[in-house]
Design brief:
Layout: H1 3-12, H2 23-43, H3 49-68, H4 71-90, H5 101-107, H6 109-133, H7 136-167, H8 179-201, H9 207-228, H10 244-277, H11 283-287, H12 291-324, H13 332-352, H14 359-382
């Protein structure tokens, strides 16, 4: 760019976001809008006003996501094509899941989830091989595995959604209603948050650490599947038969995913800090991002998680008012949600107003994950209350 052009741009100021959109961006928007309108026309009779709002809100959100993070466009298109292919294979008969090759071994709700699980675990190992070997090719393979796992997990949830309606119209529901389903959702959301930051910061060195928390969720998912036979689709209990579930649960798990990612970055930060303090010659530690970058990334992840967790808490209170007649009842789940919120509010307060950085906040992020895990899983295991439908 010439100096004259640079001077002209500086005089005119930064270009608006809309002016930077290409023809392909508008084609993407038109494609999503047409799909949303088609879904409305086809399913309008089954939706109330709130669900219609959720449908169009989701459509506009996906348009914005595709504009902001262009890699997600291919992701969403592949998920849509595989999901539609799987649904067409059923031909209205759930028994086809054991008879059609593609369904039985690849893209039924259960098969796709198993592929997701295997790919996430393999990606974790591959990322650590990349960290210790420094091979760029291995790093690219690891990233491809995570994208593939995320595709398969999302396809699994989408097809499971259809499978629930094939069981019966009174059984059908969005697949975010029990621990089995939300652990799949957690893995998908955490992976997408990590992939965004991998792209933004142009480093794959943190991949192994980020995937550790996902692999841990996969381990629980597999145990839960085989030990508790949890993969079966059951009718919703009355408390969950609400449009609030469709927005409260996903918002919650953006928060959980971001908090989990922040904790894993905290572990990497502490290892890198120890190596720097001891003047270690470890090539693996040298490949990790600078401490300042990891500190900033940890902050961004917790800020993102806190924003969505706040939204989810407010939505949960509104749901409680509709279902139980009060916004807050000091139920164990609600109480621990408040503890999680206060924990990360204090984390952000100490960083933004007191100038805390580095090791104290890294340790705090790690401890915060244990608090969050108990709020999410421990309460279901050891305490009872209005949320007892989430017990193991």
């Amino acid at each position: 760019m010439s100096e004259t052009q640079q001077d002209l741009n500086s005089e005119l100021g930064p270009r608006s976001f809309i002016s930077t959109l290409s023809v392909f961006d508008w084609v993407w928007a038109a494609l999503l809008l047409c799909g949303t309108v088609y879904a409305y026309q086809y399913y309008a009779g089954l939706m109330d006003d709130y669900e219609v709002g959720i449908l169009f809100g989701a459509g506009l959100s996906f348009i914005g996501l595709g504009w902001f993070w262009k890699s997600t466009r291919a992701f969403m298109l592949i998920v849509a094509m595989l999901s539609l292919l799987a649904i067409s294979q059923y031909a209205g008969d759930l028994a086809q899941a054991d008879q059609r090759f593609l369904l039985k071994f690849l893209i039924s709700g259960q098969s796709a989830t198993m592929w997701m699980s295997a790919l996430f675990v393999l990606a974790t190992v591959t990322y650590f091989i990349h960290l210790f070997s420094g091979s760029e090719f291995v790093g690219k393979v690891a990233s491809s595995m995570v994208w593939s796992a995320t595709v398969m997990g999302t396809v699994g949830l989408m097809v499971r959604w259809r499978e629930s309606y094939l069981i019966g119209s009174d059984v059908g529901h969005i697949p975010v209603s029990n621990l089995y389903e939300v652990f799949i959702l957690f893995a998908i959301i955490t992976a997408l948050i990590y992939l965004y930051y991998e792209m933004k910061f142009k480093t794959r060195a943190l991949g192994g650490f980020a995937l550790l928390v996902i692999s841990a969720s996969i381990a629980f998912l597999i145990w839960y599947h085989f030990e508790k036979d949890a993969s079966g689709i059951q009718p919703l209990v009355p408390a969950l038969q609400s449009y609030w579930m469709k927005i409260h649960v996903p918002a919650n798990f953006v928060g959980y995913g971001a908090f989990g990612l922040a904790a894993m970055i905290g572990i990497a930060y502490l290892l890198k800090d120890r190596a720097v303090t001891r003047n270690s010659n470890s090539k693996a530690m040298a490949r990790l991002p600078d401490l300042e970058i990891m500190d900033d990334l940890m902050h961004k992840a917790i800020a993102l998680g806190f924003a969505f967790f706040t939204i989810a808490t407010v939505l949960g209170a509104m749901w409680a008012a509709e279902a139980w007649g009060g916004y807050w009842s000091w139920d164990p789940k609600e109480t621990w949600a408040l503890i999680v919120w206060l924990n990360y509010a204090a984390w952000l307060h100490m960083r933004l107003t007191k100038g805390w950085r580095g090791k104290p906040l890294a340790w705090w992020a790690i401890i915060g994950l244990f608090i969050t895990t108990f709020a999410f899983l421990g309460v279901n295991m050891f305490l009872s209350g209005l949320h007892s439908y989430g017990e193991l």
